[in-house]
Amino acid sequence: MTTAATLLPEALALIQNAAAEGIELRLFGSLAIWHHCPRARQFAQARWNRGIVDIDLAGRSSQQSSVESLLVRWGFELHPGVRSMPDAARTVFRGRGGGLHGDIAYGRLRFSHDLLIEPRILCDAPTLPVAELLLLKLQIVDFAQRDLLDAAQLLADHEVADGDCDRINLHAVLASVLRDWGLAHSLDRNLLILLSAAQEGSLGTLPAEAQGRVIERATLLRDRLQSAPKPFRFRIRARLGEHVRWYNRVNEVGPW
Prior knowledge:
Order of helices and strands: HEHHHEHEEEEEHHEEHHHH
Number of helices: 11
Helix content: 40-55%
Mean pLDDT: 91
Strand content: 5-15%
Largest sheet: 5 strands, mixed
Distance between the termini: 21 Å
Oligomer: single chain
Structural class: alpha/beta
């Protein structure tokens, strides 16, 4: 079984080799969270013992063709069906004969909600900034236990403040969320789920002190999101609420 500890060096080598060719790639998803949370992850072994099956990367939209040429030159196979998908700014690849699997999105991450990452891709390395890592978890409409634990680990190990530098950049979170009522709504729903779990002491084996930090920081995020001035389009969309679908239906990649 592939684990975060065994897969991370391969991901970092891929990022470093791409950088040597002038191509910027950044890690996101569960593997990036494992990398960023050395303190919290020791208390969430059940989460990580299930293994990680692929590498999630983000790149610049202008570099998609260069990335794909590089992957082919390095001996990877590209998924033939991705180009025909509606969100075709994406590359799915694997090693010859199976091996390493990866998924690269360019400029924008399209999951339950769209997240524009192009302006922020150089704010951290080798991962996307912590604020985006948290947003990518809290934007999930079908918020599973693994997503809950991932978000909790980020909040336990990172303060909410202005600026990056291994912090959850409050300004970046607000700038992303206030563009989209649907994203704000999903975040609020999931922060409430997270707060309830932390208040009940049911965030895996995170110690009480760490769960207290999760409560403090999740509450701060929720309070700031609720009190921030909302643009006109945001307020109009809020009137419709859940009567209109507020999230994307995620397109799954078919078999090779």
